[in-house]
Fold Protein-tyrosine sulfotransferase.
Amino acid sequence: MQAVNLLIDSQIAEPGLLPTSPAYGPDSVAVPQPMPLRKHQTFAIILAMQRSGTSLLTVELSRHPCISMQSELFVQGSWNPKLQKQVVEVFFGTRVSDVQMLVLPNITQDILKKSRQAVEEGAAVQGFNWKLNQDFIPCWHTWLGDWAAHHGVRLIWVQRINLLRRIFSNHANKQTGVAVTTNKSQAKTVGSVQISMNTSNILKELAKDELNIKAVKAILADARRKGVQVQTVYYENMTESLDVVRRFLLQNSSCTSRGRAALKQRSGYSKIHAAKLKYLVRNWEQLRKTLRHTSWEWMLST
């Protein structure tokens, strides 16, 4: 497993309480006391690699009045498994000691507040996004696996079948600076920009993705052995899977009459890159030649 861990980029902080440092910005604030754990509260974690459609999934799941799914808890700052455990316990309300001593990035603080508010307003299911490159694997093996089993956490693994499209989306995000948008006009404008792919590293990137998926599948098998409920969702049919995922989260939860209410109206995300890759990649011929006669060549066709 150590070899697999080396494939995942991450920043590791020194052990101990989260430090007050310039990395967290001048507006970082202390964490408030978590509210007491509600009886029969259901916990969930959405696990995925970057650029796998979790923004859409989070918004759509949260349209249900009993579900509150938040964005990436560890998207900013430097973390290690010990610190992440403390913040996860604060998020789910299972930790009540020493929380005043934690100082967190603003975005993490905001997510904690939003989740707490949603629970206070009656959400029976609460969860957040955890990206694979945010130390999920070391956390699972050091504390998260047993913790998830003990607290009945439900794990949703979101995977892109076409890994080339995921890598392209990551390149596009870095080059355009736009990851998601609810503005159709902006989506059309950004989506019309052709993206240059780094073909010298593309085979290594694809191989790395496959190894990471293999590591995740081993974790999912371990989760099932521990009694953790697991649901896999594929990016390519995410919209069609929404009802299945909602049922997965709501089954045996404390959601009652609110569960029969209409879904909330929220601004949906507009797909930025809907065209085939050959129309989106500036150095298309170079990419095509690089992938010719490899196991990933089929990914060029979408």
Notes: The longest strand covers residues 42-48.
